[in-house]
Amino acid sequence: MTLEIFSLPLRFNFARPEAVSEFVNQKVGRHTLEVIKCDAARSRLGFKEFSGLGLTSISYGSEVRVKSPELESVFHLQIITRGTCYVSFGYEGVLLGVGDAIMLNPFELIILEYSSDCEKLIVNIPESSIQTTVLSELGCLPKPGVRFARRPVNLLRFPSLVKLFEAVLLEAGGCDAEIFGAFDFYKEVVINKILCTFDNNVPIEKNLNRPHPQIEEISRYIEKNIKKDITIDELSKISNLSVRSIYSLFSKTLSTTPKNYIKNQKLNRVREDLLNGSVRNVTEVALDYGFSHLGRLSSDYKRLFGESPSKTLRKVC
């Protein structure tokens, strides 16, 4: 598994580090930039605001030192996709390599030293959003506020979290702003998953993963109607839950969204049909399960199973 998918449409390409830094100061977090070594203008930055989150893919293309006096009322999830980054917290420090991720807390003094080939994904999460999630689960907040340990997690050991961010970045490229901007469903999924993955001072994991009887009813309905175009309104009707409650239910119990869950269930059935030899070609099985865009099917299938659907079919033949 790689993290190559963790990228966004570029706002800057082959730019000077100072130009990228100015944009970061405006949109991501206040900081000062010290360029240690710069041979050419090779900085890149992609940025997208989606579902209440700020998504930034960044590479300075040079050795730089970034000093962040404090993140004001925002958490940063930083994921290294290439190179290395040394993160200092006063007298403590940790070296992050490819796949490593760390949660940076608000109001902490931080220094980050980028290697010349360092690339990372930064996810801005409002402090108020994490507080709201914790309050809804526990009814109170820790006295110092929600805080994450200064210990990185390697995402390559957590494929479900990698797939979640793949889905977020994919949806960010073609989201329905009216729906996702209004309800922030993906933000809820991301926050729940982060609270369960990264060490913190909130005893919330058991609550977030507790079983829910209605998820089984919805899952059975999806399985029974897997070849149909299933809508969220249908799931709302058969479960007697609001659309918002359904998104929240999937977030807390499955760490995904209904749309992504349905798509993955369909992809699993496509794979089963290809492997058991019950179809003649990929187009036939794709249309059977409602995939009209074959290129997108192939991309999603390969991301989930590590090979194209045509390669799976060739194995059987």
From TrEMBL:
<keyword id="KW-0010">Activator</keyword>
<keyword id="KW-0805">Transcription regulation</keyword>
<dbReference type="GO" id="GO:0003700">
    <property type="term" value="F:DNA-binding transcription factor activity"/>
</dbReference>
<dbReference type="Pfam" id="PF12833">
    <property type="entry name" value="HTH_18"/>
</dbReference>
<dbReference type="InterPro" id="IPR018062">
    <property type="entry name" value="HTH_AraC-typ_CS"/>
</dbReference>
<dbReference type="GO" id="GO:0043565">
    <property type="term" value="F:sequence-specific DNA binding"/>
</dbReference>
<protein>
    <submittedName>
        <fullName>BenABC operon transcriptional activator BenR</fullName>
    </submittedName>
</protein>
<dbReference type="InterPro" id="IPR009057">
    <property type="entry name" value="Homeodomain-like_sf"/>
</dbReference>
<dbReference type="Pfam" id="PF14525">
    <property type="entry name" value="AraC_binding_2"/>
</dbReference>
<feature type="domain" description="HTH araC/xylS-type">
    <location>
        <begin position="216"/>
        <end position="315"/>
    </location>
</feature>
<dbReference type="InterPro" id="IPR018060">
    <property type="entry name" value="HTH_AraC"/>
</dbReference>
<dbReference type="InterPro" id="IPR035418">
    <property type="entry name" value="AraC-bd_2"/>
</dbReference>
<keyword id="KW-0804">Transcription</keyword>
<dbReference type="GO" id="GO:0009893">
    <property type="term" value="P:positive regulation of metabolic process"/>
</dbReference>
<dbReference type="InterPro" id="IPR050204">
    <property type="entry name" value="AraC_XylS_family_regulators"/>
</dbReference>
<keyword id="KW-0238">DNA-binding</keyword>
<comment type="function">
    <text>Regulatory protein of the TOL plasmid xyl operons. XylS activates the xylXYZLTEGFJQKIH operon required for the degradation of toluene, m-xylene and p-xylene.</text>
</comment>
